[in-house]
Amino acid sequence: MAGCLAHIKVLDFSRVFAGPWAAQMLADFGADVIKVEHVKGGDDVRRMGVPHLGADGTPTGETSSFLAMNRGKRSVAVDLGKPEGQEVARRLIAEADILIENFKTGTLAKFGLDYDAVAQLNPRLVYCSITGFGQSGPMAHLPGYDPIFQAMSGLLSMTGIADGKPGAGPALVGYSISDITAGQYAVSAILAALNHRDVVSGKGQFIDVALLDTQIHAASHMAMNYLSSGKLPRRNGTASQITCPWQSFDCADRPIMIAIGNDPQFRRFADYLGLPELADDPRFATNLDRVRNAEALIPIIAEKLAMKQADACWAELDAIGIPAGPLNSFEETFAMPQVTSRELLQTLEHPNAGTVRYVRNPVRFSAGEAEEGRRPPPLFAEHTDEVLSGLGLTADQIAGLRDAGIVK
To answer: What angle is formed at CA 77 by the lines to CA 384 and CA 133, rounded to 5 degrees?
Structure first.
């Protein structure tokens, strides 16, 4: 099937994670995404991540990070620093619906490819700029990577081991959460702008997305807890700061995560532990009481759970409607019957890497579901001739641009 966005053309001028992730999401929804890379080596993420291993265990020349962010795209290599390369870019832009870029603020203006310039060429263009700090403010000119935004947004003040306990200190979220979060916000904004163009105004617009802004906004209820109470959140390991019990516990063989969401659940949980009196104890009767008295409650629960096997405990809690689950590795995650039944792990064929496993887009449409994997992550400059000939350039013209180093 063609997909919900089969009528949409996207230019992905971005690199590394946030922008490419947003563009890949649009490709997963069916859009024709052209990845515009620099002639000298292309996207930096082609050299980031771990080497992707083939079936025989040897490196294939591809990296895990590039494969994760660039499915469904065509690759064109253009030198935007040269007038001829800028003209190629303008010809691409004239036919596009969406442009995504994550150059430092002001960089594309030097090439005549900023929004104000290209909107005159294509007034219907939705132009999304993803930067570290946005287009305004005293830090707008600065670059940045995910750990910087985890730190500056306050996220690291909430993650890690509590002060005063062994190993106390912040813990970086285990994936590039600021990039992925910004990419998701960008997709939402782009789709909103497309709708506004097609239903309301007939014109595109400029979208300013900043990783710092989106990571602060994504803190959502935790940021609001501070704004409401004036009380700063703290590092608390796996435990919630607003709900109790809501954390991992050590069973006899391995840990289990338990999340008690309301008072009736806690009463059932207390019965399950053989301690029904806990639910009537005024220290633990309500969630707010349990949060205030967590230091008294948690050891009682931990002592009981330490005598149980994790899988048996999970099954027993599931039977009485208590949310719980194991702390899985990826190996265990991908082996879960729930995950396999949802067919989250898919394969595609790549010219260098062979059969590549990947995590499919989790969004399911009842109509307009695109056929994922129809294009593997592209080789560097794999589609330059195809795309430029689609713009009306002849083989001789493309060869001339290549000889001059304008395209690859």
So the answer is: 135
